[in-house]
């Protein structure tokens, strides 16, 4: 008798991400994941008590994927703040369904992220622009609004700007925004 294939949590989560990539977040379900793996639903329900648990674990897997890509972009750039914005937009272009699920949905099940997650970005802005913590936060939020808007339009095929156009718009906005914020003692 052939040995049964062992279905791991990692395999299930990878399949769940693929289900979302192919059909959007509304297609995520135990049966769809089982179909993707070519198995019955039993291996999935034995590892995830409910669809909510599967959804939460898949959500965290998608966040991890996004974070890895952003961190890599930031670590390999001499302009990490800029790289983080471009990585966000690139994620929207390359993973439109995952982007929509993570960043364009009702956040009731996954409330707003922990504000301390912004600290690395704020530190970069404080050091590079000489801003106070308060102004770095405001600068970040205004810049992020533009980055998110571009990423949303890319993910929904509202327009298809190339990297050069995206870079130009972000650069123009960054320097325009920078001119509004006077350098301060960032130690305040």
Radius of gyration computed on alpha carbons: 20 Å
Count of helix runs:
9
Q: Report on the biggest sheet.
A: none
Overall residue-averaged pLDDT value:
91
N- to C-terminal distance: 71 Å
Tertiary shape? elongated
Order of helices and strands: HHHHHHHHH
Unreliably modeled segments: none
The portion of residues assigned to helices is 55-70%
Give a description of the structure.
- With 188 residues, the protein is mostly helical.
- The chain has helices at residues 9-23, 30-37, 42-47, 51-75, 80-94, 96-103, 119-129, 133-155, 163-180.
- The longest helix is centred in the middle third of the chain and has 25 residues, at 51-75.
- The protein is elongated.
- 24% of the residues are buried.
Which tags fit this structure?
69% helix, mainly alpha, elongated, 188 residues
Brief digest:
With 188 residues, the protein is mainly alpha-helical. The longest helix is centred in the middle third of the chain and has 25 residues.
Per-chain topology:
Elements lengths: L8 H15 L6 H8 L4 H6 L3 H25 L4 H15 L1 H8 L15 H11 L3 H23 L7 H18 L8
